[in-house]
Specification:
Helix content is 42%, strand content 14%. The protein has 387 residues and is of the alpha/beta class. A seven-stranded mixed sheet has the order 2-8-7-6-5-3-4, sandwiched between helices. A three-stranded antiparallel sheet has the order 9-12-11. Strands 1-10 form a two-stranded parallel sheet. The structure holds pyridoxal-5'-phosphate.
Length: 387
Amino acid sequence: MFSFSERLQKLPPYLFVELDRMKAEVQAKGIDVIDLGVGDPDLPTPAHIVEAAVEAVKKPENHHYPSSVGMLAFREAAASWFEKRFGIKLDPVKEIVTLIGSKEGIAHFPLAFVNPGDVVLVPTPAYPVYHIGTLFAGGETFYLPLLPENDFLPDLDNIPENILARAKILWLNYPNNPTAAVASRDFFAKVVNFAHKNNLIVAHDAAYTELYFDDFRPPSILEVDGAREVAIEFHSLSKTYCMTGWRIAFAVGNETLIAGLTKVKNNIDSGAFQAVQEAGIAALSGDQSCVEEFRQIFRERRDVVIKGLKDLGFEVESPKATFYVWAKVPQGYTSTNFAAKLLQEAGIVVTPGNGFGEPGEGFFRIALTVDKNRLQEALERIASLKL
Ligand SMILES: *Cc1c(COP(=O)(O)O)cnc(C)c1O
């Protein structure tokens, strides 16, 4: 009797349906499945953050509606964290908005600036929300392929003029999910210059800036001259502090862009639970050694997997950041049939690269979200396969 709206009907097919079905089937046989699919850290939130939340839950003043822009104290904590980390001073009132997880902000942002028929430039392969937010706002997605020969950076010089003329937003995400690629400050400078020339908003998803290894430190796009006029950047506590379940994040950047997103939120949500914001304050202003410990754990896991895959003859690069490994499937396989083989013959879940977009075909993604021994076990299982 009721049919879904056209916008729901336009949603891309969920490519992991078949894999999810297969996983359930394999598990039903009693096989011990090693799930390297989900980008959700296995480690608990640090105790000092949990303690702050427990105390905050008890305070009656936190039992009321929060404000959708977020507590000033949370935005101030985000501003000082940002200044310490990137050397940029932000106005917590005009240049920061609190989010109920960055997915919320990313999905809602186009509602503030995209009119029906406007084009949004979206990288592919990518986190699906950039396209979905565009679709829900009535915009048209124009995909920018991220290719290995361009170090998984979009080729801005090859966007057709007629597309550029209609484009409103350019989405970026570095360090990148799923390719684990990173972007330099020079690349961001080129992007900001391009945005000024073409009257574009740059929306940068920076969820993984703190999960870096070795000596590379991912920059914020706001470090670049002129970025404050054209850019909004989405930061999340989810990955940095192992807080995916808490739903707390923030966006920073250009005043008008922040005001537009805040206006959408004023009309849709009533903000993040203040006890969660207090936990966020404890995370951002507390001792940061927990983040260094997480980095060390993921670095060790990365090294185990990269060495293991290389020993088995896989074509793969050691990521400088994120907790993902993006590897080529062996000769003679597609992303889909390789992922199916790993699952059915080795009980291992990986994500087929094409699930993130067509140019991801030929790759698979491993999430380093299980411990070292399980990763070692997964590598041994892969070694025993005939590939
Ligand atoms: C995990 C992730 C996020 C963060 O999502 P939250 O809603 O803040 O938990 C954002 N972007 C990408 C690409 C991610 O992988």
